[in-house]
């Protein structure tokens, strides 16, 4: 069976696998994302090597004919490198050329939000709905827009950074360093950093100092007293920001379907209903009369499908 090698380079973990035309994901290998470039590249080379070695033991899988990579960051117009990704040690590094030399395959590099959206469009709960907008409330805010069956790239391949548009001028510092961006209010990393700042003690209230998660914050919001009130305040700020963002995006892009995903929504499922309700209540019916909301198929496989699709070697757009 014809195969494409696909990679998902995320801020906390990376996955590599072979994808087949029936959307099969085979021989998956995972690594933790490390912050130094050379060890990162070495681990990546080893993980891909393990995928290829396992594939050789499967009689029905051909050697891959291309390598598609979805990565957490803005990719330059030529698809050669990532700009300055906050969570990957690959800023300004010629990743595409390195992979081509290392693995002797043609390589396609694209933004992970866009790869996810493409995967959702091909195989997800809103497959084939066009235009399709994907919004991922994860560590950061990821977005992907499919228009005319393909990801919309923008003039210099940087379209879609809506999480880093300004929500409150001069407001909270965003993980990107800017001020008042949506992501500073409703991105998961910003939410848990704010919880750690404003809520005394560990999330469990116990002795250990585990890092906060969105689940902890939601649990804490159910408590009586001051801690509960502070947690509810953080969630309320995040909810208002997320609702504003999705209503703005609905009117700017006028999608036929919106796919929602990411760790903030899995930790805080009420937000999902609130987002859909807010769009219906605050936009003109022309925007929401035929609009469908769907849940993401779940990050990683969608990214791998989208990365494989970007190579053009399995499916034609
Ligand atoms: Zn920002």
Folded structure, characterized:
There is one protein chain. With 317 residues, the protein is an alpha/beta fold. The chain folds into two domains: 127 residues, ATPase, nucleotide binding domain (Nucleotidyltransferase, domain 5, 2-Layer Sandwich); 170 residues, 2-Layer Sandwich (Nucleotidyltransferase, domain 5), CATH 3.30.420.40. Helix content is 40%, strand content 18%. It has a five-stranded mixed beta sheet, with helices on both faces. α3 packs across α11 and α5 packs antiparallel against α7. The longest helix has 29 residues. The protein is globular and about 60 Å long. Bound molecules: zinc ion. The site of zinc ion has 6 residues, from loops.
Concise overview:
With 317 residues, this protein is an alpha/beta fold. It has eleven helices and ten strands.
């Amino acid at each position: 069976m014809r195969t494409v090698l696909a990679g998902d380079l995320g801020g906390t973990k990376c996955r590599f696998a072979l994808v087949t035309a029936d959307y099969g994901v085979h021989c998956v290998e995972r690594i933790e994302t490390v912050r130094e470039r050379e060890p990162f590249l070495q681990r990546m080379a080893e993980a891909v090597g393990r995928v290829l070695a396992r594939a050789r033991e499967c009689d029905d899988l051909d050697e891959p004919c291309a390598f598609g990579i979805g990565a957490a960051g803005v990719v330059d117009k030529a698809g050669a490198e990532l700009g300055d990704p906050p969570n990957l040690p690959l800023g300004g590094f010629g990743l595409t050329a390195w992979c081509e030399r290392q693995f002797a395959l043609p390589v396609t590099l694209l933004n992970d939000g866009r790869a996810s959206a493409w995967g959702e469009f091909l195989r997800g709960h809103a497959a084939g709905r066009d235009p399709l907008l994907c919004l991922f409330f994860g560590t950061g805010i990821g977005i992907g827009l499919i228009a005319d069956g393909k990801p919309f790239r923008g003039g210099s391949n940087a379209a879609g950074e809506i999480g880093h548009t300004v929500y409150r001028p001069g407001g909270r510092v965003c993980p990107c360093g800017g001020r008042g961006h949506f992501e500073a209010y409703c991105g998961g990393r910003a939410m848990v950093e704010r919880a750690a700042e404003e809520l005394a003690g560990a999330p469990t209230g116990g002795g250990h100092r585990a890092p906060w998660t969105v689940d902890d914050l939601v649990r804490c919001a159910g408590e009586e007293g001051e801690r509960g009130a502070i947690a509810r305040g953080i969630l309320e700020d995040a909810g208002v920001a997320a609702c504003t963002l999705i209503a703005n995006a609905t009117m700017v892009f006028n999608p036929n379907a919106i796919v929602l995903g990411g760790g903030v929504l899995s930790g805080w499922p009420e937000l999902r209903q609130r987002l859909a309700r807010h769009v219906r209540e605050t936009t003109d019916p022309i925007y929401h009369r035929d609009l469908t909301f769907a849940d993401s198929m779940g990050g990683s496989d969608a990214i791998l499908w989208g990365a494989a699709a970007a190579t053009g070697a399995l499916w034609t757009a």
